[in-house]
Design a protein that fits this description.
seven-stranded mixed sheet; alpha/beta; four-stranded antiparallel sheet; globular
């Protein structure tokens, strides 16, 4: 497997970094990967990492639920049950941000469930999904053409709304993609990014077993400071930071499985509740966060 090593921090371009944690890929390869922390800004990223043309092999698992519609197993069933609620919450958010609707692009649209909900509600939808299997399901789900590559798509076009639900942490060409997003979001339009939160209670509680490290698929491990700095530099203004309260339970379930070899449902519920309660008094540091950016 061809690996690549970043020589500088993706956020501040600092060249000094220290080892942060060694995590295992429990989903596919069982290999270990190192997380490094920038000494200048504190950003944490997977380094070294599989090259962009090699990373696809690390997504080839039926356990990677966002790329399939499988409902086998309790974790998958729980994921899909919660997804019905979160889809409606996401739709409510984009409608509040842009009541007149218009064009919406979901980058990393997976099997197209969110696009389908938005299309039914009156949005003009478009999607990008690199995974061929998930993309085919999305085409069937939405009856829309779904693009396969970010940087080669939608040249010269703009959207009132671009969403990235747990996608930014997967993208190799981070700076080029952010520049692409800057050009694709219409003036006064919105960019909505959801990512796991490195500073959450469950991240601290589970350490190297924290499921949201998800190496090597997750290339970056964001704090609130890091993502605001990264995206604001591209001409966006952060207007809201919102919790994803269900994520603490799902992540805790998987984290107990990685640690113990089986899911401890009682602990997952208890730790999920505690994580959400802790976040309320610790700067909104929920397990995952939604960042709403507006383009001036």
């Amino acid at each position: 497997m061809k690996m690549e090593t970043l020589s500088c921090c993706p956020v501040c371009k600092g060249e000094r970094r220290t080892p942060y944690l060694v995590c295992k890929d429990y989903t596919v390869s069982q290999e270990e990967f190192t997380l490094e922390q920038c000494q200048s800004c504190g950003f944490v990223f997977t380094n070294p990492r599989p090259a962009e043309n090699e990373i696809g092999a690390y997504y080839q698992s039926t356990d990677y639920i966002s790329h399939s519609n499988t409902k086998q197993g309790l974790v998958a069933k729980a994921y899909h049950s919660v997804r019905k609620i979160t889809l409606q919450n996401k739709l409510k958010l984009v409608n509040e941000l842009s009541p007149k609707k218009g064009r919406l692009l979901d980058v990393g649209c997976g099997t197209g469930m969110f696009l389908s909900v938005c299309k039914e509600d009156g949005w003009q939808v478009a999607g990008i999904e690199p995974d061929a299997g998930a993309r085919q399901i999305a085409v069937e789900q939405t009856a829309e053409h779904i693009q396969s590559s970010i940087l080669e798509s939608y040249a010269g076009e703009t959207f009132q709304m671009i969403t990235m639900w747990h996608v930014l942490e997967h993208i190799h060409q981070l700076d080029a993609t952010l520049n692409w997003l800057k050009d694709r979001v219409a003036n006064q339009g919105h960019l909505v990014i959801a990512v796991p939160n490195l500073q959450s209670f469950d991240a601290q509680e589970y350490g190297k077993y924290w499921a949201a490290y998800d190496v090597p698929r997750h290339l970056y491990h964001f704090s609130q400071k890091a993502i605001q700095q990264l995206v604001s530099e591209k001409g966006f203004t952060l207007t809201q930071t919102l919790p994803m309260p269900f994520d603490s339970f799902y992540v805790s379930m998987l984290s107990t499985k990685y640690r113990d070899g089986k899911i401890n449902y009682v602990e997952a519920v208890r730790k999920g509740l505690r994580s959400n309660q802790w976040a309320k008094s610790h700067q909104n540091n929920y397990s995952s966060l939604i960042y709403v950016f507006k383009k001036a």
